[in-house]
Amino acid sequence: MKETVFITDGQWRKTLAAVRALGREGFIVWVGDKWKLSTSFFSKYCKRKVIYPDPVKYHEKFRQFMLDFISSERPDVTIPADDETVKFFSKNKDILQEYTKIPVANYETIELANNKAEIIQIAKKIGIPIPKTSIVNDVESIDIPSNFPLIVKPNLGSGSRGMFVVNDEEQLFNAVQEITKKGMIALVQEKIPMEGAGYGVSALLNWKSEVRAIFVHKRLREYPVRGGPSTLRISVKYPELAKLGVKLLKYIGFQGAAMVEFKMDPRDNTPKLMEINPRLWGSLQLAIASGVNFPLYLVKLALDGDVEEVTDYKEGIIARWLLPGDILHFLSNPERFSLKPSFFKFFGKNLTYDIIDFRDPIPIFIRIFNMIKFMFNPEMRKIVFR
Fold first, then answer.
1. How, if at all, do strands 46-51 and 133-136 pair?
2. Looking at the DSSP assignment, which residues form a beta bridge with residue 200?
């Protein structure tokens, strides 16, 4: 009988991709989330639904629930899928690994990877290109630059959450104040021109921080149009960029799965580091469809202590986040009818979808239901529209 794998954060499309990938390999998959209508709960590969307290709002209740659940139910492997659950399981790894195997890096490494200010300084130290960056502790320490527009973002957090695009001194001061009053450090960075393509270097490293799998994708569309999660992306081979991503992950001693984000600067044709996502990432389905099954490798790493190296994958595979990502991109893009590839290209032998899979159809309808139900709920939009 196959082992049991417990995956958290079932609402995310990356979790659904992992649930399907592991279910098709014959594993018994349990899914956890704080929402009763979590998309992954309705996959045919989800054999058990686990509803837990919100790890952000009710941290102590979540902690006690997980300690009780893991110690009593003892899944063979536990994969935390998003920021808060990754932090929890990495921080409590020594306690919980008596009952389950957890293929994540230690807490200190996760915290380092999440700290954009520290990562940007490490990257500069080891020769990885970065945008021009100032690290600001308070509004009094701002050096007024002359190259607006600028990006201002907190040192903690992932993706575009908490990020500001500022066009003058007043907006700059307001953005820095908004970030620093929350006790965080602000990064003030030059804005890479919009026409520069975004790239993701995804990797799996074993317990010795040796690379066991590598995958690179290029962003084709994203929402919001001027910067956000990718809604359409393609698998590419880019060995030089892969080396940069791996160099950074190995330097910090990372273990497990992570994605390093870069953006090509068209002014000097150089990829510049954006951030590390030390967890599973939203575009996971593309890697799986291209032949790099990161969820499976994580489970093997947990169970066997290591995994055979994956050195190749299919190029030119396209993955689309249609519900609702690419729809929102289409509606908000003034050039919507001249997109390449066209928005209306719904089929193709190399095209896969993040959520839509008619071999496992019920999650599609649950996602549509959630989109309609929570369209006017600001808190839920953050969940459903990711």
1. unpaired
2. 217, 261
